[in-house]
Design a protein that fits this description.
226 residues; alpha/beta; 8-stranded parallel sheet; globular; binds pyridoxal-5'-phosphate
Length: 226
């Protein structure tokens, strides 16, 4: 199976979409966005998906996106780029110009810089934001602590930042289900419709808990070769 994914992202993408449909994506009028994660992938791997109509893509580094995407977007209009990696404040301006959606808002100081830069930028691209929640309370990982998410959301809303959902990356090596369940419960309580959760190894589980945005790399492109 990895062979197939590595030589043909398009076949892999159709397989993922088939499994999404079986797992209930799109049921009850719920739209699920497949974000194809293209970090460490080059144009040769990405173009077949663009040609097949895939339009949502995820990158975890601002600079890599800035270098890779302009020519691809010029040739394939309508791309929506999602920032799924942590954002340093000195990269905020570039991120607001390069991405449509930022999934990794996790602290007030970052919100302050975004709000300030937004007001200055004329060609603002990014108009949608997710709060990243550190559901596993892992010290090395980004994300706001679950008990602090409500206050961070209030901080964003008071400043007019349009937060539409929550995002999490569960700890490795444990069942992801309790983390997805927690994120779902939090989103319901906070009145947020978006749930960015589910990666190659657990996206069907994430769909069971109501994921609206799946972030999938390896299942489309094979293991990254660094
Ligand atoms: C790399 C990455 C993904 C994709 O992970 P795969 O297991 O390759 O599907 C999803 N989310 C984030 C935040 C990532 O950094």
């Amino acid at each position: 199976m990895p062979d197939v994914a590595e030589c043909d992202p398009l076949i892999a993408c159709n397989a993922v979409r088939g499994r999404m449909a079986k797992a209930g994506a799109g049921n009850a009028g719920r739209h699920v966005t497949l974000v194809a994660v293209t970090k460490a992938r080059n144009a040769a791997a990405i173009v077949p998906l663009l040609e097949a109509g895939q339009r949502d893509f995820g990158e975890n580094r601002v600079q890599e996106a800035q270098e890779k995407w302009p020519p691809l977007e010029a040739a394939h209009p309508g791309v929506r780029l999602h920032l799924i990696g942590s954002l340093q404040t000195n990269k905020v301006k570039d991120a607001l110009l390069a991405f449509d959606v930022i999934h990794t808002i996790d602290r007030e100081s970052l919100v302050d810089v975004i709000v300030r830069e937004q007001a200055r930028i004329t060609a603002l691209r990014c108009r949608e934001f997710f709060l990243q929640v550190n559901t596993g309370a892992e010290p090395q990982k980004g994300g706001v602590a679950p008990e602090k998410a409500e206050a961070l959301l209030a901080y964003c809303r008071a400043r007019g930042l349009p937060v539409t959902g929550l995002m999490c990356v569960p700890p490795a090596g444990v069942s992801a289900a309790p983390h997805f369940a927690l994120l779902r419960t939090m989103a319901d309580r906070l009145g947020l419709a978006g749930l960015s959760m589910g990666m190659s190894g657990d996206y069907e589980t994430a769909l069971r808990f109501g994921a609206t945005h799946l972030r999938i790399g390896t299942a489309l492109f094979g293991s990254p070769r660094i």
